[in-house]
Amino acid sequence: MTTSVASANWALSQTFYRERLYEHMGLDTVDDAVGFVQDYFMRRDANDLLAMLTTWQNADISRNERFGGDFEAALSSITSRAIVMPCTTDLYFRRR
Hints:
Largest sheet: none
Low-confidence stretches: 1-7
Mean pLDDT: 81
Order of helices and strands: HHHHH
Structural class: mainly alpha
Oligomer: single chain
Helix content: 40-55%
């Protein structure tokens, strides 16, 4: 797997490619989709991308003194209105 293909798989789900959802973006082939993703991320500051990755890997609202790792308690403490939509097919933000 080339670096650009690996990056494209990281950026978009497997379903995006399997169901040819890139066609909704006006792209004709997987190579076009990979090129789009590569171009998109190559324009970004690498430090911004690293910060985003760090947030994804370490952002746990329960990892603090107040909740002591109790994720359910942390979620239950949220009082703002929110739409939370877990799914079983998202490979990047998976259900626990």
